[in-house]
């Protein structure tokens, strides 16, 4: 595809929220300005950012400089839009963190009884509306929440607060 063709890039950082940006001309996108804009957009204080996108074969490709950015923008003949994940850190740091996560993944990250819990469907609510078998809350107990810390009302009184 021509370097002068328009492109839409969808940036994703930490979650489902994303921002789409449109450029009339691919060749005007500069790595330094792009990274500075992403830092400002997402409130990232770290100096080093790495972008990750999937190539035409479905492989993750890391973008860390202007050369990589040009390659990403010119990778496909038909790509008019790209989905890019924003990662904080250098390639070395990201790979090191990935190895640590792999070592930690040997322990289960879900609760022990997660597979045994049944998630209610709308039909369950409708069928049990007049059911004598018990309430929905009895049949589908909520997960335990952490205990609430009780606050002494005397602490909140401005007359007794030593900070005031």
TrEMBL record:
Annotated region described as Disordered, given as residue ranges: 100-164
InterPro entries given in the database record: PB1-like, PB1_dom
Pfam families on file: PB1
Domain PB1 residue range list: 6-89
Domain of life of the native organism: Eukaryota
Name of this chain's protein: PB1 domain-containing protein
């Amino acid at each position: 595809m021509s370097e002068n063709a328009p492109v839409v890039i969808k940036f994703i950082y930490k979650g489902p929220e994303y921002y789409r940006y449109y450029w009339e001309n691919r060749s005007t996108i500069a790595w330094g300005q792009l990274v500075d804009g992403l830092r400002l957009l997402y409130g990232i204080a770290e100096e080093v950012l790495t972008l990750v996108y999937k190539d035409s074969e479905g492989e993750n490709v890391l973008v860390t400089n202007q050369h990589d950015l040009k390659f990403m923008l010119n990778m496909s003949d038909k790509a008019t839009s790209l989905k890019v994940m924003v990662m904080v850190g250098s390639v070395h740091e990201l790979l090191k963190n990935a190895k640590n996560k792999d070592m930690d993944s040997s322990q289960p990250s879900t609760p022990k009884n997660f597979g045994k819990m049944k998630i209610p469907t709308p039909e369950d609510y409708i069928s049990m509306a007049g059911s004598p078998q018990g309430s929905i809350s009895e049949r589908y107990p909520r997960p335990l929440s952490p205990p609430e810390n009780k606050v002494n009302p005397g602490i909140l009184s401005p007359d007794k607060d030593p900070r005031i």
